[in-house]
Design brief:
about 575 residues, eight-stranded parallel sheet, globular, binds alpha-D-glucopyranose
Length: about 575
């Protein structure tokens, strides 16, 4: 039983994952054991002491399954096997055993909104007479249109990675739906057999020893009742896909069924659903333990604040601190009594936090990385650390399109140029937002290729690895690494950090991020200067700090409320 009573105050989840901190590993870029330039599972296993030193409780492993790698493994052709690029099932068993020996759990990425087009299910489905025909979304061309010509698609939805969301298959004589690339056809969750196949597969992984699932774009599994045309914007006949999908009518039903059939709660697994477009209200229902759906979701609102409009990721808008604070605060309040938040700034799809929300220049990089960590980790919810975030790794600042590998970036560049956009504007957007910013190899030391590989890395190593690397950080007590280690320790030590009620202070300040967390007689007070200029926190905005204990700070204590650029402090009052 995860909850003990139907009384509202008792309906908070009490799972083991509440005081936990999760570390995300993007296997291609973490550690390469065999010199082929791509990270692999034995490489991860060789770094377990590092994870132990950092103190994380859980590893989320991005996909390592068999894949043609159109989207770096988020296009799976065999759910029951490991891609040879990453190793073998035996290597994965060794990794699980090694993690478990150290008390660390393993959460697998679960990509079941779509498969690869090379998955046998899809290959069979291409035959209109196959029993698997209905496993994917097949539709005839638009009436009267010549199949395969522009505009003949069944509807005018645009795919997330560019082009139409429908691709014509000559063998079938019909179009199939793909929200992402044309090599990622969407599974039809309306079909009971599809769902059964997936639950079987999930049980197989649980029996193998995994401790949970990070569910890729899981809110997209329930499609709208009708797939229809949307209203296009000037200059583009196709309409961004996220205007149509994400809030399908059967989502809750599917998640409950999955929970029941796989035994997600019964087997005490960690479940986190990635959900573009999710609202607080939806998240509250999904993470209310009484509904037995998921433990938590990844929301996108805070990482969408620096884009002009929905579907316009690349049209940059300056980020304002009050908006960012307000967004996280709204989620804290919205899921304050029922449900649970996940906390993240970084992952394999987002630019590096220190470059995006901080100041990654030489003067302020370390303190801004620490302060962003402080702010995020002192919120209520489960924090996610993305590999290299604990070192304050920065964006890549590639200068040539040839350096980019990510399908989304490469397609965007081609599409934008074909629409007549200026090349340097496009490159600026990529520099700020490309997913490759997060995917450059992990910096282990100052040897060649940052100690990531003895071969040529699949994606260039960031040139700043000589200064920013794990070996240097571990040897420096003032490093970003040790700051993250202490943040994780604090969460393990103080219940107020796990459970305390959140209240935002100084909501309109454009420099200061301040809040309290309260539980019983304890009050945690966090003050952070999120700017590169000094500032003073008005004392009247805070509880009296006279008797407060300073738990962690970026700078030496001064006894005043003057904050240096990117200075942050965590106080405890009891
Ligand atoms: C999720 C993944 C992303 C992937 C997409 C399609 O958003 O995090 O990397 O490209 O789903 O699977």
């Amino acid at each position: 039983m995860i909850f003990q009573s139907s009384d509202e105050s008792q309906r908070r989840p009490s799972g083991w994952w509440k005081p936990a901190v999760v570390y995300q590993i993007y296997p291609r870029s973490f550690a390469d054991s065999n010199g082929d330039g791509t990270g692999d599972i034995p490489g991860i296993t060789s770094k377990l002491d590092y994870l132990t030193e950092l103190g994380v409780d859980v590893v989320w492993l991005s996909p390592v399954y068999s894949s043609p790698m159109d989207d770096n493994g988020y296009d799976i052709s065999d759910y029951h096997n490991v891609d040879p690029l990453f190793g073998t099932l035996g290597d994965l068993d060794d990794l699980i055993a090694g993690l478990h020996q150290r008390g660390i759990k393993l959460v697998m990425d679960l990509v079941v909104n779509h498969t690869s087009d090379e998955h046998p299910w899809f290959q069979e489905s291409r035959d209109p007479n196959s029993p698997k025909r209905d496993w994917y979304w097949w539709r005839p061309p638009r009436p009267g249109a010549e199949p395969g010509t522009p505009g003949a698609e069944p509807t005018n939805m645009a795919a997330a990675f560019g082009g139409p969301a429908w691709d014509y298959d000559e063998r079938s004589g019909e179009y199939y739906l793909h929200i992402f690339s044309r090599k990622q056809p969407d599974l039809n969750w309306e079909n009971r057999e599809v769902r059964r196949g997936i639950y079987d597969m999930m049980r197989w992984w649980v029996d193998r020893g995994v401790d949970g699932f990070r569910m890729d774009v899981i809110n997209l599994i329930s499609k709208p009742e009708k797939l229809e045309d949307g209203v296009p914007e000037p200059g583009n006949q196709y309409v961004p896909i996220f205007r149509f999908v994400g809030r399908g009518p059967r989502l809750h039903e599917f998640l409950r069924e999955m929970n029941r059939e796989v035994g997600l709660d019964a087997r005490n697994l960690l479940t986190v659903g990635e959900m573009p477009g999710v609202t607080i209200q939806m998240a509250r229902a999904i993470t209310d333990p009484a509904n037995a759906e998921l433990n938590m979701v990844f929301q996108f609102e805070h990482v969408d604040l620096d884009r002009m409009a929905e579907g316009h990721k690349w049209d940059l808008k300056p980020l304002e601190l009050p908006a960012l604070k307000k967004n996280l605060s709204d989620w804290q309040v919205g899921l304050g009594d029922v449900g649970w938040n996940s906390l993240y700034f970084d992952n394999h799809d987002q630019p590096r936090a220190v470059s995006r929300f901080g100041d990654d220049g030489p003067q302020h990089r370390v303190n801004s990385a620490k302060t962003l960590g402080t702010v995020l980790h002192m919120h209520k919810g489960t924090p996610y650390v993305y590999q290299g975030e604990e070192l304050g790794m920065t964006n890549t600042y590639f200068s040539a399109i040839e350096q980019y590998q990510d399908i989304e970036s490469v397609n965007y560049h081609a599409d934008a140029l074909s629409l007549g956009m200026e090349a340097d504007v496009v490159m600026r957007s990529l520099s700020a937002k490309s997913r490759d910013n997060a995917r450059t190899p992990m910096h282990w030391d100052d040897s060649s290729h940052a100690g990531f590989s003895e071969g040529i890395p699949w994606l260039p190593v960031n040139a700043n690895y000589l200064a920013i690397n794990a070996r240097a950080a571990m040897g420096d007590p003032d490093s970003v690494f040790h700051h993250f280690r202490k943040l994780i320790e604090l969460r393990h030590e103080y219940r107020v950090i796990v459970e305390g009620r959140f209240q935002l202070l100084l909501p309109d300040s454009e420099q200061i991020w301040a809040f309290t967390r309260s539980l019983d007689n304890s009050i945690l007070v966090v003050i952070a200067n999120c700017s590169s200029a000094p500032t003073v926190v008005p004392a009247e905005a805070l509880p009296d700090l006279g008797r407060a204990q300073l738990l962690l700070a970026t700078h030496a204590a001064t006894g005043t409320l003057q904050l240096q650029p990117w200075e942050s402090r965590i106080y405890l009052l009891r």
